[in-house]
């Protein structure tokens, strides 16, 4: 079965500072590149935004998705922490509000709409997809600067 392959990356110059996100989607012979940037944001917010924008770009919920991120924050959040956060009313184990909760809620809703398998890839390790997503995020930051 064909799958949509997605690579996402986010970054920030200053934390907070100018941030950017990049997405490379591939499906069969087709590919699509997305990028964006914001001022006064954080690295984690841009990592989340990359995943959100990637899943928002997928119109069909019937195609399986492999999503690769170099963010352990996103990986642990979506795979390990989010169930507990939701059970505790979006509070952490320490009973503190979850940071970036609006972005996490958006990502959670999209994740529930799609059939996504999440994978972590080491950043800056010559992985073609991660390198492309990183390049797109940096282009977006350059354009905003």
Descriptive account of the structure:
- It contains four helices and five strands; from the N terminus they run βββαβααβα.
- It is an alpha/beta fold.
- It has one domain (3-144): Ribonuclease H-like superfamily/Ribonuclease H (Nucleotidyltransferase, domain 5).
- The N and C termini lie far apart (42 Å).
- The model has no long low-confidence stretch (mean pLDDT 95).
CATH topology: Nucleotidyltransferase, domain 5
Query: What is the number of independent domains?
Result: 1
Largest sheet: 5 strands, mixed
Oligomerization state: single chain
Low-confidence stretches: none
Shape: globular
What is the H/E order? Answer: EEEHEHHEH
CATH class: Alpha Beta
